[in-house]
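step: validate -> pass
step: tokenize input -> pass
step: predict -> running
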Amino acid sequence: MAKVIKLRKGLTVNLKGCATETKLPTKTADEYALVPDDFAGVTPKVVVREGDRVKAGDALFVNKNCPDVKFASPVSGTVTAVVRGERRKVLCVKVKADKEQVYADFGKHLISSLSAEEVKQDLLDAGLFGYINQLPYAVSTTPDTTPKAIFVSALRDMPLAGDFEVELKGNEQDFQTGLSALSKLAKVYLGIGSMQSAEALVKATDVEVVAFDGPCPAGNVGVQVNHIDPVNKGEVVWTVDPTAVIFFGRLFNTGKVNLQRTIAIAGSEVKQPAYMDALVGTPISALLEGNIDDARKLRIINGNPLTGRPCSLDDFLGAHTSEVTVIPEGDDVDELAGWIMPRFKEFSANRSYCSWLFGKKKQYALDARIKGGERKMIMSGEYDRVLPMDIYGEYLIKAIIAGDIDKQEQLGIYEVSPEDFALAEFVDSSKLELQRIVREGLDILRKENA
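step: predict -> pass
step: emit ->
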């Protein structure tokens, strides 16, 4: 029986438009793209040119600081563009897909017969190793790091997040193979929700299963690391998205790179919230075609409303994205004396509105407004109420803003990632961009310690 860890801090934000357990038809597109910014900490070096032919699984770019870490093309076809931005930053590499897909063959492997180095080399050769992240710094890891443990969180509890148990159906064997492969590299902890019942999760082998009982963000892998085996200075742990575990399992079971995943199409502005199978790099326009009202002012989010990034129909499905959400932009709303009205349809974390009278099950159709400008930081303890980690969140944010590296280390910056502060940013009365602040602090610390 799995060990159960109960968390009491956190906040459940029940938004309208959760995906129902039905599947929309799989959408295909003429052109796909891989975006380097999806892999935090990676400086890309493009290894293809316009006009080159690639197979699914061939490298499109590598990590400039560690060329062994490649990033695989999701489709076979012709490279149509290497899109660059300011200072020639690589924004994405586009590939026009073949009608009949051709896969690079990396060979099937029986996990029990492989050594740790062979598992690592197979992931490197197939361009999948970069899907493994690490703490500290919350960046894509490199093969020269030695983790004391590997953490996989199968619990997704952010607002409108896709349920991993839906994605797991039909992929149970690949998921177990991926876990077994990771167990060759270090001890693996599989975090699940106390209410999850899929046999592939609760009876997973070669791993230690730990159940978490509590509100969001209990599913954050950083929160789980903090409660199972915290990261101290000089230590490294790897974190892997459960979908990436499936990618790894497919590689060893079939010898091919298959980056198809099940994502949620969700949000109050989606006509039919449901699930859909899609490849990494699928155009957002193809995923949302016919399912939103283009005439309205909408905020399209590559991810969930708290941790995802705003995007447009011209963008592409992220490598770690498990949902695409659409909510109202809100810049066309005209509220008469809005701040003084009782507001029965607006969510409030501290009972500022009368909507709390309807209970926790009420669904809210929130828009993208932050309702106020940036102001002085108030040490009110509001971060701590939604941050179930053994750190002082407000003091850590102040230390990052002040650039006090010694204080950041004392306050536990090695244990956190930007997404851990998503809820704190949501409830923050100072309207600070906490995730951006944490990301910048981690990047500066990584450079200082390089």
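step: describe -> The first strand starts at residue 3 and ends at 6.
step: cleanup -> pass
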